[in-house]
Design a protein that fits this description.
Helix content: 25-40%
Largest sheet: 2 strands, antiparallel
Number of helices: 2
Order of helices and strands: EEHH
Structural class: alpha+beta
Number of strands: 2
Distance between the termini: 29 Å
Mean pLDDT: 82
Low-confidence stretches: none
Shape: flat
Strand content: 15-25%
Length: about 70
């Protein structure tokens, strides 16, 4: 069985959630953002001047997900 993990960074705080179904993808994305909002330790991450492009993905909805 496979799955997908979603890590989000919101104002320097990291959140993570995962799912093993496509139907749970949006809920996991929302949960990862909530966990980031409630995180107590900011993360200092290197900043890329440009976003990387997605070449291929098992589900195009993942590549089209909003990055906000």
């Amino acid at each position: 069985m496979g799955g997908v993990g979603i890590t989000t960074i919101v104002d320097g705080f990291m959140g993570f959630a995962s799912t093993d179904t496509i139907e749970g993808l949006e809920e996991s994305y929302d949960l990862s953002k909530k966990f980031a909002h409630h995180s107590s330790r900011p993360r200092v991450l290197p900043q890329s001047p440009t976003l990387s492009s997605v070449c291929s993905c098992f589900d195009p909805r993942i590549a089209e997900a909003s990055q906000t």
